[in-house]
UniProtKB/TrEMBL annotation, chain A:
Entry superkingdom: Bacteria
SUPFAM superfamilies: PEP carboxykinase-like (SSF53795)
Taxonomic placement: Bacteria, Pseudomonadati, Pseudomonadota, Betaproteobacteria, Nitrosomonadales
InterPro entries per UniProt: HprK-rel_A, P-loop_NTPase
EC annotation from Swiss-Prot or TrEMBL: 2.7.1.-
Species name: Nitrosomonas eutropha (strain DSM 101675 / C91 / Nm57)
Record protein name field: Hpr(Ser) kinase/phosphatase
Keyword terms, alphabetized: Kinase, Transferase
GO molecular function annotations of the record: kinase activity
Enzyme class: transferase
TrEMBL record, chain B:
Pfam entry (one): PqqD
Protein name: PqqD family protein, HPr-rel-A system
InterPro entries: PQQD, PqqD-rel_X
Length: 302, 95
């Protein structure tokens, strides 16, 4: 059963009660909230996610709850909680969806150590994964949004989830937070994309989430082997460059980019070594989506 | 006068990337990125302790270099760095 098959009232009962248990890639997530605005947003933005079976273990239990403040008695604040703990300071109720999504990402980054977690977008084409590792601000979410609407299957805009022993990558298609000018770029470039509300005033400016395509969510159980690693960088006005990257440099960039490389130690060293040796490594500088897409299409053809 | 030796060389995981090397050190869980000379220092210190002069001499022969005082200084710095990372150990002459 999918979230979209629930009426708004049914969803509200779940969220306010035992929690909405949804399948998020290889994990299950339980969300609780009574905030009407967030319930409406989740009804739209989580529509394609499947509900977790009753007998399945839920890895993450999160809540978004109202927060009263003595200093700001009239402010409508909310707090994100995971297992009863709050990793962020309270924010305005309008930021509930963004805080929920960032909170879930934080929990995945902090707690998952059976998989190697790269700070990377990942998409699949022709049966293989194209990994796009990049630091925040490099434009990987915007690039992922573009790719997923042009024939690539979205794995994630934020996490490259790798099984270190076998090298498989797992899809984790979650809402993707477009920031500031990227929102208009995607609205103009991809009018078919489903975007959530624009949320101003967050730590990262104005944010609007883009919903992953239904197909990407439905094929969430289909892992794939990596074949290409491209380090992307959006630079205003730059001519397109898709250049070969020495494997030693790719190793260094990946090892420093992974969230839990040092935690996994030797396992991570071996996994990154195998990953780099088995992939074509490139760096991409671009300013124009069409030319970037053409270059990535050519790389991933056949 | 000090000597140095590579106490855990055999436990290191070394990958060669066309003359550059990633070295995983299980004791610390750290990965080091070394060039050919950096790795060669570890290699020649695997076994018996060597003094700075001998190390520089070995390196200059292996890499066909003319060692000068700057070279000695750089190798001394590298040895101190390796020691801090736990890749090599210092042995006092009278030990």
């Amino acid at each position: 059963m999918k979230v979209e098959q629930l009426s708004l009232d049914e969803l509200r009962v779940l969220l306010a009660g035992q929690g909405l248990r949804v399948k998020m890639g290889p994990f299950n997530l339980s969300v609780q909230t009574r905030l009407p605005s967030l319930i409406h947003q989740l009804h739209q933005m989580y529509a394609h996610y499947s509900l977790a079976d009753e007998d399945e273990i839920v890895e993450f239990h999160v809540r978004v709850i109202p927060k009263r403040s003595i200093r700001q008695p009239f402010a409508r604040l909310i707090r994100f909680e995971v297992d009863g703990r709050s990793p962020f300071p309270p924010v305005s109720v309008e930021q509930a969806l963004a805080t929920l999504e960032w909170g879930v990402n934080l929990v995945i980054a902090m707690r998952i150590n059976h998989l190697l977690l790269f700070h990377s977008a990942a998409v699949e084409r022709n049966g293989h994964v194209l990994l796009l590792p990049a630091w925040p601000g490099s434009g990987k979410t915007t690039l992922s949004a573009m790719l997923m609407h042009r024939g690539y299957r979205l794995f994630s805009d934020e996490f490259g989830l790798m099984a270190p022993e076998i090298g498989d990558f797992f899809p984790l298609p979650r809402l993707m937070p477009l920031k500031n000018q990227s929102i208009k770029i995607i609205r103009d470039y991809l009018p078919e994309a489903i975007l959530g509300p624009e949320i101003p005033g967050t730590l990262k400016g104005t944010v609007a989430h883009i919903r992953p395509p239904q197909e990407s969510i439905e094929r969430v159980d289909e892992a794939a082997q990596p074949r290409w690693i491209v380090f992307p960088k959006w630079v205003a006005g730059a001519a397109l460059r898709l250049e070969s990257l020495p494997q030693s440099e790719a190793f260094l960039l990946l090892a420093t980019n992974a969230f839990n490389y040092e935690v996994l130690g030797e396992t991570a060293f071996d996994a990154v070594t195998r990953l780099v040796r088995s992939c074509e490594c490139r760096k991409l500088v671009y300013s124009d989506f069409d030319s970037a897409l053409a270059a990535l299409d050519e790389l991933t053809d056949g | 006068m000090n000597s140095w030796y590579s106490s855990h060389f055999s436990s290191l995981y070394i990958e060669n990337w066309d003359g550059e090397f990633t070295v995983f050190q299980p004791e610390s869980g750290k990965t080091h990125f070394l060039n050919e000379m950096g790795l060669h220092i570890l290699t020649i210190l695997d076994g018996s302790p060597l003094r700075l002069n001998t190390i520089c001499q070995e390196l200059s022969v292996h890499f066909s270099l003319q060692p000068d005082t700057q070279f000695f200084g750089k190798i001394a710095q590298t040895l101190q760095r390796y020691e801090a990372l736990g890749l090599i150990e210092r042995v006092k002459e009278n030990e």
